[in-house]
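Work Package 3 committed the consortium to producing structural models of liganded targets before the mid-term review. Because experimental data for this complex are still outstanding, the team generated a predictive model from sequence and the ligand definition alone, so that downstream docking and mutagenesis planning could proceed in parallel. The input record is reproduced below exactly as it was submitted to the modelling pipeline, together with the SMILES string for oxaloacetate ion.
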Amino acid sequence: MASVAGSALSVGSVASYGTQIGLGAKPKPLHVNHNAPKLFKGFSGLKASSSVFCESETSFMGNGRHASVWESFKPKLGRSNLRTKSQLVPQASSFKVAVLGAAGGIGQPLSLLIKMSPLVSAVHLYDVANVKGVAADLSHCNTPSQSLGFTGESELANSLKDVDVVVIPAGVPRKSGMTRDDLFNVNANIVKTLVEAVADNAPDAFIHIISNPVNSTVPLAAEVLKQKGVYDPKKLFGVTTLDVVRANTFVAQKKNLKLIDVDVPVVGGHAGITILPLLSKTRPSVTFTDEEAEELTVRIQNAGTEVVEAKAGAGSATLSMAYAAARFVESSLRALDGDGDVYECSFVQSDITELPFFASRVKLSRKGVEAVISSDLQGLTNYEAKALDALKPELKASIEKGMAFVHKRMAAVASV
Ligand SMILES: NC(=O)C1=CN([C@@H]2O[C@H](COP(=O)(O)OP(=O)(O)OC[C@H]3O[C@@H](n4cnc5c(N)ncnc54)[C@H](O)[C@@H]3O)[C@@H](O)[C@H]2O)C=CC1
Ligand SMILES: O=C([O-])CC(=O)C(=O)O
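The resulting structure, written out as tokens with the ligand in place, is given here.
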């Protein structure tokens, strides 16, 4: 595996974790290294930029003139952490990632960002639409990983062969006036079909679900995997990273903070009021007036709609989503690579509330979710506590809708 060094994101000083082993497991107090230096912050989770290997003496971004672009993605490593040129050798092994829905608005830039990762040896692009051109285009980028295109149902199984992470942005995006739930009927079928194929061909892979409504498609995916006998709750993730990315951006702007330092946990789900930024848990510690807290919360909750309306019929967020999804992929690969200090927010099976799925910070490891962080839900402001109560009925209904979709299909098949 590609080796990485240094440490990355850190969370609360002494956090209590609910383990993911079954619902109702007792929270386990753990010490979390909050004092670890934030060596890596920013886009990609490219915690150890030193593990990048180059085909030539130029950086994979091209020649020295473009190095500044790559520099901006890199963690702030001390010189002692930088490898010498002689150490810039191909990694013994690295990871394969499949993107299902790779010809789309999210899929294309996401595939590019994944191809730029030093932890990736191959990116498999699958779509029902013609994706071979996208893969050919991408294959000309002189980054070390391969890009391969797969089109149509007959090539789906091959696209999943030997992959470590499967990212699913396949499905329709919403237009002005629609809710994410309005996408359910179309996207539920797409996600079901794709997750069935993942179960058959890559049962051990991490699965990242982007397709909306995430609050329903993730529980749906869990039921599909259960039905196939391969459900591992630690490896199924709803991608809510964009909510964190937005919260970090908006808070930094509002409070004039250095963007790279800001980290806001966002919990709940990924639609409207189910998106709950915990501004009181912002790092670095910062205070908000009640008006500021409400204004920021509402903006973060409506940020998807802000983009949908600005795009005026041309779909929803794609570039920021690709950026956020690439960060989540990179974090997953770092965890798979053995980094013991990787935390992200994600919508996962959880026991930190009475709901079976909930977005919160999770600690990632080689096995997937190692711990769900419950401490973020302690010591909430009144505003946050009320918002948490208010989101639960909607989130519960969305979760049940996703599960019921699979159960109804199973019942229909059984009755034939
Ligand atoms: N989780 C999140 O934070 C976010 C989720 N989304 C969601 O991501 C999804 C995709 O959005 P866009 O990329 O903008 O849409 P898009 O329409 O540009 O791309 C979707 C792609 O999926 C492909 N596709 C459809 N059915 C497929 C199937 N059965 N197998 C493989 N590929 C299939 C299409 O051919 C298309 O290339 C939407 O559901 C959207 O709501 C969007 C932004 C943020
Ligand atoms: O708003 C949408 O439909 C897409 C999405 O999930 C987001 O941008 O957060």
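Reviewers should note the following from the model. Residues 100-101, 103-107, 127-129, 169-174, 183, 187, 190, 193-194, 210-212, 214, 239, 242, 270, 315-318, 321 surround NAI (ligand 1) (CB under 6 Å). These observations will guide the Year 2 experiments.
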